[in-house]
Give the backbone structure.
Amino acid sequence: MQTRRRIPEATVARLPVYLRILSEQFDIDVTKISSEELAELAGVNAAKVRKDLSYLGSYGTRGVGYEVEFLVYQIRRELGLTHNWPVVIVGAGNMGQALAGYNGFGDRGFTVGGIVDIDDAKVGSVVGGVRVRHLSELTQVVEARNISIGVIATPGLAAQGAADALVAAGVTSILNFAPTVINVPPGVSVGKVDLAVELQILAYHEQRRINAAKGSSLVSVPGESRRRASA
Amino acid sequence: MQTRRRIPEATVARLPVYLRILSEQFDIDVTKISSEELAELAGVNAAKVRKDLSYLGSYGTRGVGYEVEFLVYQIRRELGLTHNWPVVIVGAGNMGQALAGYNGFGDRGFTVGGIVDIDDAKVGSVVGGVRVRHLSELTQVVEARNISIGVIATPGLAAQGAADALVAAGVTSILNFAPTVINVPPGVSVGKVDLAVELQILAYHEQRRINAAKGSSLVSVPGESRRRASA
DNA sequence: GAACGTTTGTGCACGTTTTCACAAGACGTC
DNA sequence: GACGTCTTGTGAAAACGTGCACAAACGTTC
Ligand SMILES: NC(=O)c1ccc[n+]([C@@H]2O[C@H](COP(=O)([O-])OP(=O)(O)OC[C@H]3O[C@@H](n4cnc5c(N)ncnc54)[C@H](O)[C@@H]3O)[C@@H](O)[C@H]2O)c1
Ligand SMILES: NC(=O)c1ccc[n+]([C@@H]2O[C@H](COP(=O)([O-])OP(=O)(O)OC[C@H]3O[C@@H](n4cnc5c(N)ncnc54)[C@H](O)[C@@H]3O)[C@@H](O)[C@H]2O)c1
C-alpha cells in the first residue's frame, strides 16, 4: 500500500492538461465524455488518453465513457490538488511580479504564500496582494505557512543561492525560471521553465524547414510540407 | 543531402542547455572541456552528452575533450542561431510586457521584432523599447521584418484566435503561454509553456512524498528518502 | 433476453531514449 | 617507438513511451 501504483512521468505531465479540459467541460455542463472526445480536446491519441486514465483506476464505463465530475475528482486526488498549495516566490522582479499578480493560479490549486527579494528597495512593496519580505525571512515565511513549493525568479547567477536557501528553509519542490541548472539534495524535486530553450527548439525547426526547402528546391515547390503540431 | 541527419527531439531539447553552459565557459576563458565536465555542469549523464554531440559530427578529440569555441559554433549552426530571430508577441499584458522587457533574449539568439494587442488602451504604449501595435496590423509587422516565430501571451480564450492570426500572417513557429491547447495546420510548430502544469507536476511529487511517508511510517522515520533532482 | 452498436481497458509490437561497456585514437613520457 | 593514461564515439542492451487492435463490458432496442 505504501508505494501505491507508480504513474509514468509522461502521464503525470498530461494529467494536468486533461484536468483543465475536464474542468472546463464540467463548467459548461458536460457530464460525460469519451476518450475520443477528450483526446480531441487535448490534442493527443485516444488510446493514450485511455492508458493514462487507466493508471488512476478503472473509472470509465464501457459503451458510455467517463463521468466528467468523477474524473476531475480522481485526477485532483492523484495530483494532490484536493487542497491548495501555498507557493513562495524568490525574486520580485518582472517575472516574480507577473507571477504574483497572476490570477490563473488559484483555479489550478496554488496560492502565493509569500514572496521574498534581496533588494531593500523592493522589500515592503505589495505585489499581487502579498507584501514582499526580505530573503533573510525566507525560513520564517516557509514555516509560518508550511510551504513546500518554491519558485525561483532571480537572475541566473543568484539561482543556485536561492535554491540552497529554499532547501534550507524546508522547501522540497522547486520550479526554476532562471536559465541555470541548479543542484539540490536527493529528495528535492526540480522543474524548470526556460523560455530561451523553448525558443531555440523552435528555431531549430525553422532552420530545418529552411534547409529542407533549399535541399528539395530541385524537386518540389518550396512551400511547407513537414508535419508537426499541437501541444 | 536535403534531409540532413535528423537529430532526436530529446537531443534538440538539451542542445540549448549545453550551448548556454559552453558559452559561459568560453566567457571565463575555458578553451576545452570533456564530456564528463559538461555532463556535470548540465546535470546529465556523460554518455548522453557524448551521444548528443555525436549527432553534430565527430568534433571531439580522444584523450582530450572538445574545443569549447568550436562546439559553441557547431551547436549554434545546428540550432539555426547563427543569426538573430525576430519574434512577435501577441498580447501586451503582464506576461507580454515581462517578455518584451527581458534582456536575456538577445544573448540567446532572439529579439522582439514586434508586439501587438487588441486593447486600444495598450496600443501605442512602448514596452521594452518596442511600440505596441494593434492586432490588425499583425501581418504588416510580420512581413516587414520577415518574422517566423510568434509568442502567444493572451488570455486562454483568445489563444486559438491569436494562433490563427499568427498563422494567417505567415508565422510558422509558435510558443504558447496560454493554458490552452491550440490547433495549427501541418507545417507549423508549436511549443508551450504552462506554468500551472509545471506546478501540478511538482504537487504530484509532493503528494507522493506525503503518501510514502504515511505508508512507511510503520517502518522508518518520516524524513525524506526518495531521490529525484536537477534539471 | 438476444442482438447490436459503442467504448473501455489492455496485451503486444514498435519506436525512441537512455545507459553500459569497450575498442579506437590522441597525447605524454621514457 | 613502445607504453600507459585519458577520453571519445558508438554498437548493443535495457528501459521507457506510443499506438494498434481487439476482447470484454455496458446500454439500448425490440
Ligand atoms: N522577464 C522575463 O520575461 C523572463 C523570461 C524568461 C526567463 N526569465 C528569467 O527569470 C528570472 C527573473 O527575471 P526578471 O526579468 O524578473 O529579472 P529582474 O532583474 O527583473 O528581477 C530579479 C529579481 O531578483 C532579485 N534578486 C536578486 N538576487 C536575489 C537573491 N539572491 N535572492 C532573492 N532575490 C534576488 C532582484 O532584486 C530582482 O528583484 C531571470 O533568471 C530571467 O533570466 C525572465
Ligand atoms: N502572468 C503570469 O504570471 C502568467 C503565468 C502563467 C501563464 N500566464 C498566461 O499568460 C497569458 C497572459 O497572461 P497575463 O498575465 O499577461 O494576462 P493579461 O490579462 O495581463 O494580458 C493579456 C493581454 O492580452 C490582450 N489580448 C486579449 N485578447 C487579445 C487578442 N485576441 N489579441 C491580442 N491581444 C489580446 C489583452 O488586451 C491583454 O493586454 C494568459 O493566458 C495567462 O494564463 C500568465
In short: Residues A 90-96, 117-119, 122, 135, 153-156, 158, 161-162, 177-179, 195; B 98-99, 102, 104 surround nicotinamide-adenine-dinucleotide (ligand 1) (CB under 6 Å). Chain A has a mean pLDDT of 91. Strands of chain A lie at 32-33, 60-61, 65-67, 85-90, 110-117, 126-127, 130-134, 149-152, 173-176, 189-192. Residues 85-195 of chain A form a domain with the Rossmann fold fold (CATH 3.40.50.720).
